[in-house]
Amino acid sequence: MVLPALAQALGRPVSFAPDCVGPEAEAAVAAMKGGDVLLLENTRFHPEEERNDPAFAAAMARLGDVYCNDAFSAAHRAHASTEGLARLLPSCAGMLMAEELSALERALGNPERPLVAIVGGSKVSTKLDLLNNLVGKVDNLVIGGAMANTFLFAQGYPVGHSLHEADLADTARSILSRAEETGCEIVLPRDLVVAKELVEGAAESFVSPHECPDDMMILDVGPQTVSYVDTVLRGAKTLIWNGPVGAFETKPFDAGTHAIALKAAELTRAGGLVSVAGGGDTVAALNDTGVTGDFTYVSTAGGAFLEWMEGKELPGVKALG
Asked: Which Pfam families did the record assign (predicted)?
């Protein structure tokens, strides 16, 4: 699948070697003439790749003169082809990698303020590092999705049988306290969309955070929350977004995410907002809303985008020098 797509994109024939190291790869490289393009087999067929084995990296290095990494989505992995090889050859970032890094630096490294972050998803436990990093860097942090349920629970609100992490209530309260210390406004749902089951077309109700019935679950933010987030975004200069604010895959619980995405897209088109988004669910939600092309930048990465937002150094980027 990759070979014909690459040949079509380049507008020229592309040869293929059935390995990325060893005699077959070396012979294929030796046979190349000026202007030839050769695709080597996936490095993941070798266990040495994920171990970042020095000998394996050296074997790949013998096949080329320059290393160019254009895979930001794999830059958080210290593998032979992303980290080890970069230290053995003159190295550079590809155009996509450079574009990603530039967009993320503009969004979080040196943003125009006020800076707003929207973080959604199902579990606080998967985004602890992210939340702790953001409360020290952003002016407003909008928390949605099932993650918000844990924060509501931590504040004593009823959550019915909604997905939440009761054991992380203290952690949520700690994040809220730290946000107060840093001057970061944490925006939690002001009204909720609840239903008895997560199914297409389920009967929905709109309630305040004080009123979630015991036999229902929180599945989206309501119109009051959307209206307040709109107000926050109108006052912002930069937005970074990771995670939907509701169960967007199932209608009608996509309404909150769609409404906020439409507002962010509108403000970006008007030139008042730099908007950067990333993560698989986020990209899917923006695609579903039809506004992906209106955002300033939508990252192709998942784990790497998340780790960058967490403030972590990415091995594949660091190795490029």
From this structure: PGK
The domain ranges of the chain are 2-97, 98-309
Predicted pLDDT of residue 211 = 97
pLDDT at 288 over 90: yes
Q: Per-residue pLDDT for 47 more than 90? A: yes
pTM summary value: 0.91
Indicate the burial class of 1 (C-beta count within 10 angstroms; 0-12, 13-18, 19 or more).
exposed
Judged on CB neighbours under 10 Å (0-12, 13-18, 19+), 170 is exposed
CA distances from residue 297 to 25, 27, 28, 222, 263 in whole angstroms, order as listed: 37, 41, 38, 27, 16
Helix, strand, coil % over all residues of the chain, rounded to 5: 45, 15, 40
Closest CA to 285 of 250, 312, 318: 250
Helix (H, G, I), strand (E, B) or coil at 275: strand
The CATH architecture that domain 98-309 belongs to is 3-Layer(aba) Sandwich (3.40)
What's the pLDDT tens digit per position in 214-224?
999 999 999 99
* Cβ density class 208-234: b for 16+ within 10 Å, e for less: ebeebeeebbbbbbbeebbebbbebbe
As a whole number of angstroms, the distance between CA 229 and CA 239 comes to: 12
Please give the CATH architecture assigned to the domain spanning 2-97: 3-Layer(aba) Sandwich (3.40)
Q: Return the closest-CA partner of residue 4 out of 12, 24, 42.
A: 12
Q: How many C-beta atoms surround the C-beta of residue 33 within 10 A? A: 5
Cβ atoms of 148 and 176 closer than 8 Å: no
**DSSP letter assigned to residue 82:** I
HSE, side-chain direction, 13 A CA sphere, residue 301: 24
Sign of CA dihedral 251, 257, 263, 268: negative
